[in-house]
Amino acid sequence: MILEMKVPSPGESITEVEIATWLVEDGDYVEKDQPIAEVDSDKATLELPAEESGIITLKAEEGDAVAVGEVVCLIDTSAEKPVGSEQSSVSSEAPKVEKKAEVKEVPKATTYATGTASPAAKKVLAEKGIDAASVSGTGKAGRITKDDAVNAVPSMGTQPSNGSRGTERKKMSMLRRKVAERLVAVKSETAMLTTFNEVNMQPIFDLRSQYKEDFKAKHGVGLGFMSFFTLAIVRALKMYPDVNSMIDGDFQIKHDFQDISIAVSGPKGLMVPVIRNAENLSFRGVESEVKRLALRARDGQITIDEMTGGTFTVTNGGIFGSMLSTPIINPPQSGILGMHNIVNRPMAVNGQVVIQPIMYVALSYDHRIIDGRESVGFLVAVKEALENPVELLMDNDIKKALEM
Fold it and tell me: Which of 297, 232, 247, 309 lies closest to 270 in space, CA to CA?
């Protein structure tokens, strides 16, 4: 029996995926539920498992865009699993070496077509600004084909006598292309503005230094910065609900819950999983959820549902060493908070100049829906909570807040 494997729907509103990588080869025997391919949608990379066991015939190439419901491979379920294939591939006989006849290279004939670009090639070369004389044609009699033009690389000046000057042309994944499209759209379709502030992280440093070992021993997760920032953001969103809203046509939609998207780096690029109802979570709850989502993103197991939604985003460029940045809004949200690296800087404290661990924070927001009062007030509220966490985030009961 020949089974037609079709592309399943990865999620609502997704109509097309791209074959990123085939994990098997044409003619291989596959087991049921064995991953046979990785497919990219505009939101995530997913594994495609074999629906039955049998011999597989591939019907799409890597890089092909295929519609949901389209056949991508056939599985002959009546085929028996090969037996002893590993042993049969090893022969006790010495390998035979075939002598190849020496073939002398014949110079290619030069004609009027040599070095002449086809009409399609001329157009591509003109767009790239490349002179046809600098391209070697692979077509008949040396004619420059469209493929020659597409693969041609503009001159980078006089070639050096030594050193590598290699280039690579690689198609971006569907996920990367979609991210690029969304980022450009945000810049052109929103009135994005960024406001900045600085946070003295010493109070959080003191709390973590005193309680992080006991916290990890009891809960199995570390007491990191994300729980403090997430709970500070939740508090500020309740104070300034416009920041926790979005535009839908002529309407403003406000949320009475806080779903916090966290930007994490995965093997396929930037992922933004969502901490659902963060307003109901404790320090332990936030840290556990951050760890769970980060591991799933790192292992390529994150699902589209886990990245869908979110009312506000937080991104941490500080883990890569960023001192300051202007993060781009994650649509259709209206705000994103950028965390940065922590550096010891001189600061006035109680009239004295002292060295303190300082982090610059940035809030990018959609000025169409969020005014300066709300944006600046929101960021100040985050700053206040981070600089006074015992009172504003722990209700003056540290052990209860940390469930110690």
Answer: 297
